[in-house]
Amino acid sequence: xxxxxxxxxSYHGAGAINSIPEEIKGxxxxxxxxxxxxxxxxxxxxxxxxxxxxxxxxEYTLYSDIKPNPTxxxxxxxxxxxxxxxxxxxxxxxxxxxxxxxxxxxxxxxNPEFADVRSLEGVAPTKNKAVPIIAVPxxxxxxAEVTINYVITDVEKNRKMVCVDVHDIPVVAVVxxxxxxxxxxxxxxxxxxxxxxxxIEGYITKGAWALSDMFxxxxxxxxSKSLRGAVDNTPEGREGMALGQYVAGMGFSNVGLxxxxxxxxxxxxLYDTPHGVANAIILPTVMEYNAPATGDKYxxxxxxxxxxxxxxxxxxxxxxxxxxxxxxxxxxxxxxxxLKEIVKPEDVPFLAQSAYDDACRPGNPRDTSVEEIAELYxxxx
Length: 381
Ligand SMILES: NC(=O)c1ccc[n+]([C@@H]2O[C@H](COP(=O)([O-])OP(=O)(O)OC[C@H]3O[C@@H](n4cnc5c(N)ncnc54)[C@H](O)[C@@H]3O)[C@@H](O)[C@H]2O)c1
Ligand SMILES: [Fe+2]
Fold this sequence. Notes:
By secondary structure, the protein is an alpha/beta fold.
């Protein structure tokens, strides 16, 4: 048996944010907690949506104490603000950090026995659905608007906790490429490579099946076609990435990921490395490591990335072609090739253990060990 969980409703395309008031009013919500981050407030990105709320006469309280790689403290503060505000729904405006914080806040409000946040790591046995969330992504990467996951950093333990819970999925996703057009090149590249990593890891993960394959292969194709354009801020590139990352989210949220994410999470926790940058650097190396456990799947990855003649290639040839296509895209959008500037050699044992303990690791197509993960880190240094 396989299970599939998706948003109740999603909106796509330029101007999609104008659908938000009707959703709020139609669902009978009276007051909104807007969850966003300080930079988005500063650069006027949050305002694009709050202007829509203002024009529709919808009351809201703004909560913007959310840092990239959000912390337990960000969540607990958000819970307090939600309670004081008298809100009955959340509009999350931002990247994975804002949307994930909103999910954790929404879960704790309706499941107060998890107020410590730490007890939510892994598959959390919550009983109640989160406060209804309308999620408006401003990056094209995490797809947190359609996933059943959120990631919160435990600063004391230097640990990123992946929390998996069907109760956290936003009821409505509003995927508007105009919300993403202010992203600088580096952020566009990093978040876009996160989306590609979701699509590739989701396609080869142990739990993959026909329905998730359909989403992941299409996502690989759209992202490969669109990311370079998005980095150059073309409307077609932005539109493509908005859709491609969402389609990847529809897939991976339901089947899991692998050790690219497991190895990226400790880098976010220990060095605050942007999530997409960490994934992008690690992805080709882990693809090579995983290749023996992927059957003929790299043939379809290579073809989806635009490689011609895959039908006539040997197994070794199409596996190499898939990895090379990923390396080329990563290089073209300016991602560093290794972890030399990021990882301190003395941290490798901690990183490897932390990656092994990560919730994404069991989904990896090839069974692994702490020692092998340590070797993978070292090969990138
Ligand atoms: N929930 C999931 O399924 C899931 C999946 C993958 C990653 N994540 C998590 O999401 C987080 C990363 O999220 P992210 O990569 O979207 O970035 P982010 O939310 O951390 O944002 C990074 C920075 O980019 C800025 N920014 C965002 N949108 C912008 C825009 N349109 N214009 C200008 N600046 C903008 C933000 O202000 C912030 O400073 C990590 O914590 C990661 O672990 C969650
Ligand atoms: Fe990710």
